[in-house]
Amino acid sequence: MVNSTGEPTRPLRDAQRWLLWSGALAPLVVAASIIEESVVRKAVNPWRQSISLLSEGPHGYVERFGLVLGGLLMLVFAWSLYQVWDHSHSREVARTQAATGVGLLLTGAFIQQGLAPKRGLRIPSPWGALTLVGVIHIIAAGLLYGAAVASCIAVMRALPQRPSWQSAWRYCRATAVSILLLLPAFVVAAGIGGPAGLLERLTALFATVWELWFVRLAVTRSTTDRVHS
Q1: Within a 10 A sphere around the Cβ of 83, how many other Cβ atoms?
Q2: Percent of the chain with pLDDT over 90
Q3: Shortest CA distance to 102 belongs to which of 130, 61, 136, 153?
Q4: How far is residue 109's CA from residue 76's CA, in Å, rounded to a whole number?
Q5: Is 147 exposed, middle or buried (0-12, 13-18, 19+ CB in 10 A)?
Q6: Using 50, 70 and 90 to split pLDDT, how confident is the model at 212?
Q7: What is the pTM of this model?
Q8: Residue 168 has pLDDT above 50, yes or no
Q9: Is the pLDDT of residue 164 over 80?
Q10: Could you give the CA distance from residue 101 to residue 18 in angstroms, rounded to a whole number?
Q11: H or E stretch including 61?
Q12: Which domains does the chain have, with CATH numbers?
């Protein structure tokens, strides 16, 4: 195996490899909590209701737990990535992955809480008037999806500049563009009563599949040798 400069490298130690795989567990845990809540709760309409609304109600703890645990796993993955990659662009990837973890943590810790009461602080949004906690949740979700796009771009910059990696560049670019197109459509759909749930779930699906692809790439390409920019 060689690094991005063509120099020989050593394979990862087992402990480092297992820590990197935490990046694959994170999206799977989050996806499992979303699917469980979407299927078990008969009142949920996945076509219209956003993922955030699954955090409410007596069973909302399932998704909240999934988001918080997923965030913690992403932070472990980002830390591991930071340790084994020393190339400047690769460190950018680790930072964007850490931002993804923070976004997951905050969306789980600060739930949307439905609409604000008729009296008191009422902050307008496409989902209706929100409480301050609900606004923090929306900002955290923006950080989450923004970090997903930034990760795609950072990985493109970190990949070796060789023709053999063109398909990987295209995949990163396609995922980033898809998320950037779906997010505004999701917000508009939420405001007009359209298929907001479907659009957000598609966005999450693209981000999840890309994350699993990238973790596999990180595990197979990361080394204990430092790659200097």
Answers
A1: 14
A2: 45
A3: 136
A4: 18
A5: buried
A6: very high
A7: 0.83
A8: yes
A9: yes
A10: 18
A11: helix 61-84
A12: 14-113+121-221 (1.20.1070)
